[in-house]
């Protein structure tokens, strides 16, 4: 199991953000979302967060939020920046740790 060390809400966020963070942590939903994002990357390496969300039928904001936590857990890493096929703008690609092409 991944060991997530990041805070789900920043100290300057409103009380409601901290309440939501407590709820998602206590329910285990945050951990399940991180595991889901890692599994998505393992299945389809090298996509942007928006492409991953689209391909796997997930909410793009959930995927984007959990990506840095999966990176902190050293499960995934950022890869080359390229034009996202969905957003049509420059975006980071995400890879299983150790599999990103060398730029």
Please characterize this protein's 3D structure.
Residues 1-29 are annotated as: Disordered. It is built from four helices and two strands; from the N terminus they run H-H-H-H-E-E. The model has no long low-confidence stretch (mean pLDDT 89). Helix 2 (29-43) packs across helix 4 (60-72). The termini are far apart. The protein has one domain (16-96): Winged helix-like DNA-binding domain superfamily/Winged helix DNA-binding domain (Arc Repressor Mutant, subunit A), CATH 1.10.10.10. The chain has 103 residues and is an alpha+beta fold.
Brief summary of the model shown:
This protein has 103 residues and is of the alpha+beta class. Helix content is 48%, strand content 15%. It has a two-stranded antiparallel ribbon with strand order 1-2.
The helix-strand sequence is HHHHEE
Going by helix content, strand content and strand pairing, the class is alpha+beta
Q: What is the terminal separation in angstroms?
A: 30 Å
Provide the helix percentage.
40-55%
Number of domains: 1
Question: What's the oligomerization state?
Answer: single chain
pLDDT < 50 stretches: none
Mean pLDDT: 89
| CATH architect. name | Orthogonal Bundle
Please give the radius of gyration in angstroms.
14 Å
Based on Cα principal axes, name the global outline.
Answer: globular
CATH superfamily: Winged helix-like DNA-binding domain superfamily/Winged helix DNA-binding domain
What is the class in the CATH system? Answer: Mainly Alpha
Count of extended strands: 2
- Mind describing the biggest β-sheet? 2 strands, antiparallel
Share of β-strand residues = 5-15%
């Amino acid at each position: 199991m991944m060991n997530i060390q990041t805070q789900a809400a920043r100290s300057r966020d409103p009380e409601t953000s901290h309440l939501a963070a407590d709820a998602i942590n206590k329910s285990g939903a945050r951990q399940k979302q991180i595991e889901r994002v890692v599994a998505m990357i393992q299945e389809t390496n090298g996509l942007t967060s928006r492409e991953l969300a689209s391909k796997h039928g997930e909410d793009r904001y959930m995927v984007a939020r959990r990506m840095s936590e999966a990176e902190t857990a050293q499960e995934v890493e950022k890869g080359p920046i390229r034009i996202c096929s969905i957003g049509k703008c420059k975006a980071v690609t995400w890879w299983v740790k150790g599999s990103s092409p060398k730029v």
